[in-house]
């Protein structure tokens, strides 16, 4: 499980989002939305005694990590979290229904012992150790808090949300008794307890930011990264000899770099054992050609969008951004993405909650070219033949896309076609997939981008860093609204779920008013796996968060 922050993914090109609140998880409600028609988990389940001892699982990723510290901003992507998941863990884990629960491998108890002030006490498992045998203690939690709370600008964390609400972390009766005191109520506190770093890493900004760009972080999970082959582009995981929990089943887990365009044929040729299809029709068709393929589909927390860089150029005007959002046919993009892979096509109109979830409030601008003309007029543009001009300058835009990522390119081409037909030329700028986030999205080196945010079981607090503050490590929009600070403070401090939703709806409406990005569609979790693979595959809350790696393997 990741701490608060969002994840970005390339397959849809995507990043990870931070956390949300217990009692207000992202599990679908009984809404009539088509998105709720799918289950939350669809893999073949098996108990430990039904799983073979031994064997190899081979999986694909789009790129090797540029940073193996996934609490550092450059390590905040889905591929990195996928690779690291079997090597990490913490006192709180997420069930396949999206509920935060105690993980007894890491703690015997986690309790909210006081609400005013808010105090959480964790009794850590004394058997839990780092890869080198060093015990996991209060010192690790203290250092991780200091690295992520924003007080030392030398650290580059994914998000400070939640960590900046902690006033102290102190030792209780011994080094395994951790007492966390908050300066204000923080409803999503459980979202902070899924991962901790070694004190040796989290105490040093250089180690935190740069120490693990080419080597693996020390393991605290059932597997360790035993080899990183930069030449062959393969990461190898093997069982952790210091692991204190149930013995994992697999001998080896291999993560091979395979471009999205080649993953379908790689699965069909039996070079990999599982394939995340998402909304890629070509992958879906190719996967079905394998005779021992099992297709799975669930709801998901991933949503596609177009982010518009508002720091300069035409998109710095909110009316131009609203015009773009009124021109792009989101329904058509959703249908093109989802229908070919056999799942419902719905659009996404909320920045916080997923379609079909309690609290979802669709405020998206409708497809309306006439309204777009009005927005452009308000921005000072006039129609000049087939183009729009302002002070003699033609309105034209660019959208940056990662190479060899079919779904991302297809979505960008549809945006290009819609805007072009309206009279706004759009140039597609293709860049290497491996550098898409680190060199273009994160530093704001783009005019428009379209990737996917992958949410967590804590939607309210996790989405804050996407929009506020302006210099948040995940706010790539180049703009914000200062009112969001107070609103998110209220939402994060509110322990009543219904009241939290009301505040979250205010936040959603505020973001729509200045529209730094516009959501397009939720993506289902569509997978193909080799028959016989158990406890791994399609799951709404993501394999990185919900898979128990000790029981992943091949059925007897």
Verbal overview:
With 556 residues, the protein is of the alpha+beta class. Helices cover 25% and strands 23% of the residues. The protein is built from 16 helices and 24 strands. The strands form seven sheets. Strands 1, 2, 13, 14, 20, 21 and 22 form a seven-stranded mixed β-sheet that branches. The protein has a four-stranded mixed β-sheet with strand order 3-12-11-10, covered by helices on one side. It is globular.
Kindly summarize this structure in a few lines.
The chain has 556 residues and is of the alpha+beta class.
Keywords for this structure?
disordered N terminus, 4-stranded mixed beta sheet, alpha+beta, 7-stranded mixed beta sheet, 556 residues
SSE layout and pairing:
Elements: E1 6-9, E2 14-17, E3 56-61, H1 78-84, E4 92-94, E5 100-102, E6 107-115, E7 118-124, H2 138-148, E8 166-171, E9 177-182, H3 199-202, H4 205-210, E10 223-229, E11 234-239, E12 252-257, H5 260-268, E13 274-276, H6 281-288, E14 293-308, H7 318-327, H8 330-338, H9 369-378, E15 382-384, E16 387-390, E17 393-394, E18 397-402, H10 406-422, E19 426-431, H11 436-441, E20 448-449, E21 452-454, H12 459-462, H13 464-467, H14 483-493, H15 497-514, E22 517-530, E23 533-534, H16 543-546, E24 553-554
Parallel strand pairs: 2-21, 3-12, 18-19
Antiparallel strand pairs: 1-2, 1-21, 4-5, 6-7, 7-9, 8-9, 10-11, 11-12, 13-22, 14-20, 14-21, 14-22, 15-16, 16-17, 23-24
The helix/strand class is: alpha+beta
Largest sheet: 7 strands, mixed
What's the rounded overall pLDDT mean? Answer: 91
Extended strand count: 24
The rounded distance between the terminal residues' Cα atoms is 29 Å
